[in-house]
Design a protein that fits this description.
Blueprint lengths: L9 H26 L5 H12 L5 H8 L3 H13 L3 E5 L7 E5 L1 H21 L5 H19 L1
Antiparallel strand pairs: 1-2
Helix pairs in contact: 2-4, 2-5, 3-4
Amino acid sequence: MNSEPAFPGRADAIEVIQRELTAFARRARGRASELHPELSLVASSILDLVIERNGCLAADLAGHFHLDKSTVSRQVAALERDGYLEREVDRANRRNLVLHATTEGKRVARAAARSRAAAFTERFQDWDDADVERLAGYLVRYNAADAG
């Protein structure tokens, strides 16, 4: 067994991580329309979060995804136009409009999730369970550090 690290140092490893995560993000954006033609990666992410939270404000989406409010506004408008999201007056603060997924939005989101799950399952078919579990744990840890 080789006891030398795969990368000569922490800085080199971080550079590789950055490069690989960037490649992953680019590939994900490119494959989003292939996996589900009705939704871009951003639109799918927005719809998923609205469903996960059982409704939220557009400002919450901008904050969560670190996106400009105008970007979120355009995406939300497109999702509304396509019949996937609707706005409802917030009972707690009538000045706010809460976004909710429509029945069609939930259907499309489920279909997109199934396509993504199938693509990931195929991608990891040659990985053993321990490696998949380790990667999952590392990604949770990495994203948790960003949430703070």
